[in-house]
């Protein structure tokens, strides 16, 4: 007599439920990371702009604002930036918290910080 092999209906339902929960987590967690990467790209591009080496803080904030609009960055506003000069180079940094609701009273909380120096 041969042993039966395969996936039972219960096993398939449990596996599908686990897969659905993982897909939900991924769909909720990925957009904040994409926005963080876009914000980091915007501050690094702004800091690398040679026309802003001697610019005022307001001009740097305006340049970042334009780049952030193009990259659809909404979590980091120009007033959230810390703008300094280190060794003659423009250094821009930011930090923020993103809270992503999952269901009922459960949320994912991400603490993001970035700098043009690293």
Write structural notes for this entry.
This protein has helices spanning 9-48, 57-70; strands spanning 82-86, 89-103, 106-115. The relative contact order is 0.16. The mean pLDDT is 91. The protein is built from two helices and three strands; from the N terminus they run H-H-E-E-E. The chain has one domain. The protein is 46% helix and 25% strand. By secondary structure, it is an alpha+beta fold. The longest helix is centred in the N-terminal third of the chain and has 40 residues, at 9-48. Strands 1-2-3 form a three-stranded antiparallel beta sheet, with helices on one face.
Summarize this structure as a short list of keywords or feature phrases:
elongated; alpha+beta; single chain; 118 residues; 46% helix; three-stranded antiparallel β-sheet; 2 helices
SSE topology sketch:
Layout: H1 9-48, H2 57-70, E1 82-86, E2 89-103, E3 106-115
Antiparallel strand pairs: 1-2, 2-3
Helix pairs in contact: 1-2
